[in-house]
Specification:
This protein is α/β, with parallel strands linked by helices. It is about 40% helix and about 15% strand. It contains 11 helices and 8 strands. It has an 8-stranded mixed beta sheet, with helices on both faces. Strand 3, helix 3 and strand 4 form a beta-alpha-beta unit. The longest helix is centred in the middle third of the chain and has 21 residues. The termini are close together. The model has no long low-confidence stretch (mean pLDDT about 95).
Length: about 325
């Protein structure tokens, strides 16, 4: 089995910022598209029931023919990513190789789904993801269900695993890569780090909010003055106007998985983190209290959701996820 110690990138690829930037590059996007196309899989749209009228879009990929899948793997992307993100496509390709059917889920307001729901996405909307996963399990009752996520999706997948038993979701195993652990510390890290990270996330988020505003004119409070704010101030606006949380810290606490918040986890979880992650501070993992069913592996390099192995853009994390999810169904 792969473990974090097996990730030994060439020396020129050990800079965390290079790893993080290349992870979102056109090179990686093209590599993901190439690998998924080479799998021969066919994909179709699913609209999943998120409860209370919420609709979430997903793509179900399977290799045609008389093959019996070993399971169904649900993939969750990071903040302002989508089903078409490079790591989502590359992980899907690796899982298809392992014998899975794969479902890539778009969170609310991600990808081209802003029209599906009137309310704005925020990171505490875990209930609709749990409900959508339950809908997915009902549609494919014969397939063992596993899930994986990256960054914010890594946070979501661990909370999904925490809520799954009570919701009747038959989740066998989850894998999480560079999960957002303590959102307040992640915000500090983005603000204090190189300006490119603030620019990258703010550019994508404001573009998303403009699309939402155009579709739902009642979001008149989301004017251009609001969209010019920095990430902290813009998040504060979101919390104040579009959530029931009374403060920014209360909102962060609402989706934090730091400390002992995963103590009740019953679903086995495999977690991969890079010690040099410039977005998710590794120091925040020092006091993390994980139950016996969760295993944290730490690589010396990798940046934020990078773990690139070569100039083609091949990633260690995608292979790691595929192997641990296959282990979760006995594959």
């Amino acid at each position: 089995m792969l473990n974090a110690a097996h990730y030994q990138p060439p020396r020129w690829l050990r800079n965390p910022h290079l790893q993080s930037m290349l992870a979102s590059s056109r090179m990686r996007l093209a590599r993901g598209e190439q690998l998924l196309a080479a799998s021969g899989a066919q994909s179709r749209e699913l609209i999943l029931d998120g409860g209370d009228g919420v609709r979430l879009q997903a793509l179900h990929s399977r290799i045609p023919g008389p093959r019996d899948p070993i399971g169904l793997a649900l993939l969750l992307h990071g903040w302002e990513g989508s089903t078409e993100s490079s790591y989502m496509r590359m992980t899907a390709a690796r899982l298809l190789e392992q014998g899975f059917d794969v479902v890539r889920l778009n969170f609310r307001d991600h990808g081209n789904t802003h029209h599906l729901n009137p309310g704005i996405f925020h990171s505490c909307r875990i209930e609709e993801v749990v409900h959508a996963t339950a809908d997915l399990a009902r549609r494919f009752p014969a397939l063992p269900l596993v899930a994986a996520g990256y960054s914010l999706g890594g946070n979501f997948v661990l909370r999904l695993a925490l809520h799954a038993p009570a919701a009747g979701v038959p989740l066998r195993h989850v894998a999480s890569v560079c999960p957002v652990l303590d959102p307040a510390l992640t915000m500090d890290s983005i603000e204090q780090g190189p300006a490119m990270y603030d620019w990258y996330f703010r550019r994508k988020w404001t573009r998303s909010l403009r699309r939402k505003r155009a579709l739902f004119p009642e979001l008149a409070d989301c004017d251009d003055t609001v969209l010019k704010r920095d990430i902290r101030a813009l998040t504060g606006w979101l919390v104040e106007r579009h959530t029931a949380f009374g403060s920014l810290q209360a909102y962060f606490d609402g989706y934090s998985i730091a400390g002992g918040r995963l103590a009740g986890l019953q679903v086995p979880a495999s977690i991969l983190m890079a010690q040099d992650d410039p977005v998710i501070p590794f120091t925040s993992f020092a006091d993390w209290q994980l139950p016996a069913r969760a295993q944290l592996q730490v690589a010396g390099w990798g940046g934020h959701c990078g773990f690139l192995e070569n100039l083609r853009g091949d990633g260690f994390a995608e292979r790691w996820v595929a192997q641990y999810l296959a282990l979760g169904v006995g594959g």
